[in-house]
Write a structure and sequence with these properties.
Length: about 120
Amino acid sequence: MKNITKVYEFRVKLYVKKFDEEKKFYSELLNYKLIKSWNDPEDRGAMFDTGFGIIELLTPDEKYVKIQGCDVSLRVKDVWKLYNELKDKIKIIKELTNREWGDTDFKIQDPEGFHITFFSKTK
């Protein structure tokens, strides 16, 4: 059977109230390249290239509910170097840890509390 659900691009869409703070976090602290942004009166957005997928920030509508029960894990080339670069700039919510399944990771949160885990294969 042919796989009709094959993914050609992966996006995480985050609806955020603190739009400017979130945009600065992803562009300046995490250093993700801004692909596109828009600033319409009722619709603001920004798309960031993570190198493998896209994080898209959007202004929420009146039905906004804070994200619960979800986070994202991003594999990076050198989690140890990234940890050392970020540890004094960003709130680390889970310290650098070697996992029994062969990954080393740490976890941060963005200004609205969305959790991001960075990991590499354990050396």
